[in-house]
């Protein structure tokens, strides 16, 4: 049967079992949208901007574990996708982005809405394609899904010129991919695994550092077995949150510049760090203040380029974390490390909030935890509210904390929540945002309503850019430059204008009931919490040592 | 530290820009880059000379390997390989200096491929040291233009750099 390349593209999406795509039409993708018009199997969610479509695809991918798909037109549609693609790249999220392009015969002529999107996105896609032959569409789509979802996951972009989209081809979907230059190593090297086992069995003060790789490889059960068998405390990077239950006695909390002092101390004072699928990013190592010279590091990652990139590693293991942990577990001996755990327990410290008004941010997160106990999905935006959520909510399940870690993209959370809710309609999806971030993508409230999705939004309104203000306190001697909003909308009315119920709370005593009302609401809901921008959380450690939690890093 | 990499890549348009872009955005230094198709027209071979410490050179290899269009990255060890570069030098030739320059070219086994009233083009093939030496000797005469191909290199003996079988 002969069909157009655009129809073939949609058929390929069906072959890949794509249930939903997020997108926004335009002239250069007319053919693709025309093909979608006739399609009955794939749901299309029309977001209010292409950036949101990419974030929604990312939220969907993170919750479902499948590849998220987004579509945009050429030129401005494609450039609007860019922030979403880069966000997905930095967090290793599998998405396939499809863009329309001006006709192949006209490329290079600075045509209307022409932009070199494969050139623009080369630095932050895992791979990308400009389709030149219509007959290549099935192979390219097959490869794109394969590359996006295997090895270290990441975004792949397919740019389809209009004239190519219209050409007719004979459709068959390839069964396999054959890529000479792409063969991820999934099994760890047996000798390296033996070395790692020996190091773990003989360590006195080991600590596990779990990153996002544990979640993407689905290795949370193996992580639990390793921690419990060998009695090793666990800390996580921002991306690793959810890989180990927050209530577990071995859990130390998040490490890094915004992390728990106890977790950072554990990394610093350990004799063995077992790093799983994390990349020792500056936000992590900055908090630990560098490692001890005598600390050995085992680093397991599916991406060989991550090993040895930021820190010197003693035992590198390239492979899929789940596979590697299974091998390790065959030889790990049972241990009890009471002294080490007791020592770390002593560093637990107590958090105090300074400078807040009637509500402290921890009250909100604490109350949310009381009423949900980890049985939800939280998406966040970027700012102080994000760091507070990461530190204090006790996440229980993998794929339940969805945040922009690597790029720190304000505006990520609401569209990501849309994707999350579609991926898992039975779970309560809560979006925690700030007044700054929310204003970047609140147009997606319309997408929520249009698709009858229920997302609960908790808006931490401190009338400004809290995290940046904190940085200006630390780095600029308190010179506050452009961090206070002189005008803000009435968020409750704004929400109501979209037909979304909303409440505002200004004191702690209203919180319990407000959160309960929000959670019971069937549709979406917005809860605005008024905070002061001066609120700072600090950890007090025994012996009077004070650690400030958010100091030093750049937002 | 310098290292020479032989990089087999898919012979597609756009691959060169991916490789060059990678070097630029990761702050890697390229000393020299030469590229052309292999005996298999689907595969091109790049010879890239890079500069950096051991950690950087390791990263360069790993990051190149991450590009889907890159099929294989191998190091070429200076001791066990031959490397060549071709250079063309357009040099000032005042009439009284002409025979001296021809003499130099002969010593280097270089070819004179163009002659005009006041200049000559000399073509030389050799490893980097030889090319540099010739350049130095010709400099006093006045080099008007110089172009180099970049180094290409191959392991000695029967050891080959081949695309892995599918
Ligand atoms: C798109 C984007 N622009 C700018 C920044 C820099 N930045 C980091 S946090 C922050 C403040 C966020 O304000 P808000 O959402 O109100 O959160 P708060 O810190 O007040 O809780 C800014 C501007 C960013 N991370 N992303
Ligand atoms: Mg704010």
Automatic annotation (TrEMBL), chain B:
Gene transcribed to yield this protein: ilvH
Pathways involved: Amino-acid biosynthesis; L-valine biosynthesis; L-valine from pyruvate: step 1/4; Amino-acid biosynthesis; L-isoleucine biosynthesis; L-isoleucine from 2-oxobutanoate: step 1/4
Protein name: Acetolactate synthase small subunit
Segments forming domain ACT: 4-78
Homology family: Belongs to the acetolactate synthase small subunit family.
Catalytic activity from the UniProt record: 2 pyruvate + H(+) = (2S)-2-acetolactate + CO2
Organism: Fervidicola ferrireducens
One GO BP annotation of this record: isoleucine biosynthetic process
Its EC number(s): 2.2.1.6
